Amino acid sequence: MTTTPLLEVEGLHKAFGPHEVLRGIDLAVMPGERVAIIGGSGSGKSTLLRCLNFMEVPTAGRIALDGRTLGRRGRDGGTVYPESELCGVRRRVGMVFQQFNLFPHRTAIENVMEALVTVKGTPRAEARARAEAELGKVGLSEKRDAYPSRLSGGQQQRVAIARALAMDPEILLFDEPTSSLDPELVGEVLRVIRGLAGEGRTMLLVTHELGFAYHFATKVVFLADGRFYEVGTPDEVLKHPRGERTRSFLARHSEFAF
Amino acid sequence: MTYAWDFMPVLRHLDMLALGLVNTVKIAAASIVLGVAIGLVLALMRLSPSRLARAPATAFIEFYRNTPPIVHFFWFFYALPVLADISLDPLAAAILALSTQSGAFYAEVFRGGIVSIEKGQWEGARALGMSRAQLMRRVVLPQAIGRMVPPFVERSFELTKTTALASTLAYGELLYQAMQVNSQTFRPLEVYTVVALLYLVLLITASALARLAEQRLTAYR
Where is each ABC transporter domain found (chain A) (predicted)? Predict the structure, then answer.
């Protein structure tokens, strides 16, 4: 059985000035796949994720969504991405950030409604009903009228997930969603993400929570120096790593485990 | 040394001073409204990705930041009729001088407020598919406006006090009227004491209103 990958990346490069962060990434994500991206700090894992919804514009390479290559050829041979096309891509590829990035001047429910109304043009009453349903799913119905400053980090991140889900994205990107949370708040966010896995959503997750990655992912990639160093099932990469660098990375992560 | 204060002669001319106060408010209000419009355009130009838009706005702002306001008053009043054959009455010249000057300062207030909004807010909005206009209108500006209020008020107070320069063009604002009253009463101490109090009352009232506005704009914090 062959189907088109929902997301296809070919020869992706990203440089910030002279500093090359991504040095040729190839990746195909099938519908319903869950990819965990791991790697040391500075390995380029966040940059890779941020290229996929064009928070960063790639320096070179091809990105295709549902079989359609994005951008068009520019005069100098590079790829140009018109802003209108990128807005369309971002509607289809949702993102959850490490720092939540909720809008502080809007209540929880208004945060979830905002893009439904502004971007999709959903009527307010309908958007409100949808937002209430999404808040219910992340267990925050009773916080609907609270401003973000009144919510804990874990609650803020759950609102951010509800906000992304409300747009019906085809792909969800999680950029270290629990890295800025107090340890006791990590669980509530991971439980919500695990619930989404059960719905068969296509997701990519950058994380340091290797235990969670093991249970969550269908595929794990280990990134080093801007390249895929090792790719495989969670069992292959996390339990039986073949590469020397994967092994030492995993060893450092379990150094203080008991 | 004892000075015998006598406010009666001055108070008898209170109607002249009241007219001056009204004219001061008139210049200030018109210049603030026009200045805000000019400032918005300049701020958008400075935030534009195009150098062609940024450069003239920067030049305009730098010019006004580095020249004294009284020169602008004289320039609009005396130079414009010669150069462009446009004769301005003192009120129009004063408003033009003040609104262009404060437009340059307001532009920096607006730009400063906008760029002070954290990167995460821009990204959060973009990641939801918002266009630049949508994220400005719905996410950045509503938060930036609250931060713009204190420097905006500061600038507007500066502007209101600078209206006194219109007296050099013989326009009947508060200071000019005070000079008139003084020449009729020969009571400079009393006249300028009353004038100082009038400015004080005007600006304190305005600052109370501004505080109220700021509280309402930042209630979510």
Answer: 7-250
Residue B202 maps to which CATH number? 1.10.3720.10
The residue segments making up the domain with residue A106 are: 7-253
Quote ipTM for the complex: 0.92
CA distances from B32 to A138, B104, B177 (A): 48, 12, 22
What is the count of structural domains for chain A?
1
Using a CB-CB cut-off of 8 Å, the residues of chain A touching B141 are none
In a domain, A258, yes or no: no
Residues B97, B77: Cα–Cα separation, whole Å: 9
CB contact under 8 A, A90 and B125: no
Domain that holds residue B100: 8-217
Q: What is the pLDDT along chain B (221 residues), one digit of tens a residue?
A: 688 898 998 889 999 999 999 999 999 999 999 999 999 999 999 998 889 999 999 999 999 999 999 999 998 898 888 888 888 889 999 999 999 999 999 999 999 999 999 999 999 999 999 999 999 999 999 999 989 999 999 999 999 999 999 999 889 899 999 999 999 999 999 999 999 999 999 999 998 988 888 888 888 77
CATH number at residue A213: 3.40.50.300
- CA nearest A58: which of A41, A70, A66, A42? A70
Structural domain total, chain B: 1
Which residues in chain A have Cβ-Cβ distances shorter than 8 Å to B117? Answer: none
Task: Locate the chain B residue with the closest alpha carbon to A150.
Answer: B221
Q: Smallest CA–CA separation between B113 and chain A, in Å?
A: 15
